[in-house]
Amino acid sequence: MRMVLSYTFSKPVDYWSFVERQDSTPLITNLPGNWYYSLSHSKGLMAFALGQYPVGIDVELIKKRDFDKLAEYAFNADESDLIRFIPEKSQRLFYRVWCAKEGWYKALQPKQQAATSMRDLSYLALVMRETPWRVYEKQIFDYQLSLVTSVKLQDIVLDRTFLLA
Fold first, then answer.
1. Number of domains in the chain
2. Residues 149 and 53: beta-carbon distance below 8 Å
3. Smallest Cα–Cα separation from 115: which of 124, 105, 123, 125?
4. pLDDT more than 70, % of the chain
């Protein structure tokens, strides 16, 4: 995160001040105003999104899981049916839906999050552009990544990838 912030704002890497928060993204205390960020990580891969618009990002390692149990928690009936009725693609579909909904939830402001259940967020409405939110989905190796934002996707620039040894 420090490298991306430093690159974006032309500040030294040690300039940035973070406050760790339990079960939440670290707070960047000296981030310039009107900037939004989101962080996700899964089994060795980290994704960080930064922009001048609400943004949420999620990345998940694609692996076998109890999809039905997780879907009960986060999916509405249409989404659960989609996973069940296409068994040969259920794993891929599960991660697309899960990551998009998680990214969307992270893009919401805290008061909106408190009033919203993951089940309330419709993946189908998101991909059919029936909401003001937009999703960018990508499979990277064995990971699913979803970026959700309130701006048109053509306005997004996927600027840099930082690979650290």
1. 1
2. yes
3. 105
4. 92
Which string of DSSP letters, residue by residue, matches 66-102?
Answer: -HHHHHHHH--HHHHHHHHH-GGGHHHHHHHHHHHHH
Domain residue limits at 100: 34-155
Write the CB contacts of 49 (distance below 8 Å, at least 6 apart in sequence). Answer: 37, 38, 39, 55, 56, 57, 147
Residue 100 lies in a domain: yes
Query: Structure pTM?
Result: 0.89
What confidence tens digit (pLDDT) does each residue in 43-58 have? 989 999 998 899 999 9
What token pair was written down for 57? 């990002």
Could you tell me if 102 and 117 are in contact, meaning their C-beta atoms sit under 8 angstroms apart? no
- Kindly tell me the number of DSSP H helices and DSSP E strands found in the chain: 6, 7
66 within some domain: yes
| Distance from C-alpha of 127 to C-alpha of 135, rounded to nearest angstrom | 7
Residue 65 lies in a domain: yes
Which pLDDT score is estimated for 67?
84
